[in-house]
Structure formats: structure tokens, C-alpha cells
Amino acid sequence: LDKDTSGILLIAKSSQALIFFQKQFKNREVDKKYTALATGVMKDDESVIHTLIARSPADPRKQKAHPLTDNSLTVKREAVTLYKVIERFKQYTLLEVQIKTGRKHQIRCHLSYIHHPIAGDALYGFKDSPVPKNLQRQFLHASYVKITLLNGEAKAFTSDLPEDLKETINQLEK
Fold it and tell me: What is the Cα–Cα distance from 129 to 117, expressed in whole angstroms?
């Protein structure tokens, strides 16, 4: 998880488990969902963001999304993010976000690319992006992971929003 992202973190207890889990992530067999608060009111109830992602030439800490048609020589990797609106507020939209690929900063980069950066995101947010009162970090939470365990059992893990993010939602104007 990125710094300041809360939620589920999968840890392998053995080298065998690590290799087993890594293979599932590489083959895109892991179902991952996040809860995010995007700035602005998003029009579509659900959508897919499908781009190429590469390191930003302007800031090496960041990733940058590029259209799929970009043929420049920079190394770029395909990234697919799906989102569904959970609730709309006056200046924000609460989302369930599912990533089909696992690129560095993918959700943060993609939401910024469509001009709805994550609330409180100091790296990908815009200079004039609103920030909810008392939010001290980016509003991004790993809420669901479904993966196959070594014994072949598919196991789903869930994590409720932490108190700081619940409080942020409760203070937003509808």
C-alpha cells in the first residue's frame, strides 16, 4: 500500500507462500477493491479508466497516465481501473474502485488523470483541490482482497473504513 493508504495488507509467512501469492498478482487473479473519496462530483455512476502509465518526467516520485495511442519511446505499462459511485456529496464523490492491474500509484494517478484526484492527496491533487475539514491524509482505503490460499481455498478479506475516514464522510455536505 502507498504511504497514508489504510486497509488490508497481505503478508506471506513463508517463501513458498510469497511465490504463490506473487504469481496470482502477476496473473491478475487477485480481486482488489478500494474505497476512495474523489474531489468533485463525478457524472457517471460507473466507468473504466484504461490508459498507459509511466514514470512522470516532471516528478520522479509520480506516475503519469497516457492515452493508449501514445507511441513515444518511454516505457509505459497498461493500467485498468474500474469505479462505481457509492455516494455523491456537494464537492466530492465516494467511490468503490477496483484495479485490474497493479501499477504503482494506479488509483491516485488515474483519478487525477480524469480530473478527480483523491481528497487529501498531496502528490496527485491539484493546487486548488478542496480538502475536507480535518482530513490529514489521502482518502484511500484497501477495503477488499480475494485471493487463493496455498490450500486452494479462495479467501476474501474485508476492512471497514477507519474512524478518521468515517468522520470525514459524516462531515461532508450532501
Answer: 8
Cell of 76: 509505459
For 167, counting Cβ atoms within 10 Å of its Cβ (0-12 exposed, 13-18 middle, 19+ buried), the class is: middle
- Within the chain, how many helices (H) and strands (E) appear? 3, 8
Nearest to 84 by CA among 71, 94, 76: 94
Identify the pLDDT of residue 34.
98
How much is the pLDDT for 102?
A: 87
Look at 38-47, 64-73, 77-86, 111-120 and tell me which has the smallest mean pLDDT: 64-73
64-82: per-residue pLDDT in tens?
999 998 888 678 899 999 9
Radius of gyration over every alpha carbon of the chain, rounded to an integer in angstroms: 17
Give the residue among 118, 81, 82 at the shortest CA–CA distance from 103: 81
Q: Under a CB-based contact definition with an 8 Å cutoff, are residues 79 and 110 in contact?
A: yes
What does the alpha-carbon distance between residue 54 and residue 7 come to, in Å, rounded to a whole number? Answer: 25
Report residue 47's pLDDT band, with 50, 70 and 90 as the boundaries: very high
Q: Which amino acid is at 43?
A: K
Quote the DSSP letter at residue 4: T
Mean of the per-residue pLDDT values for the chain?
Answer: 94
State the catalytic residues.
2
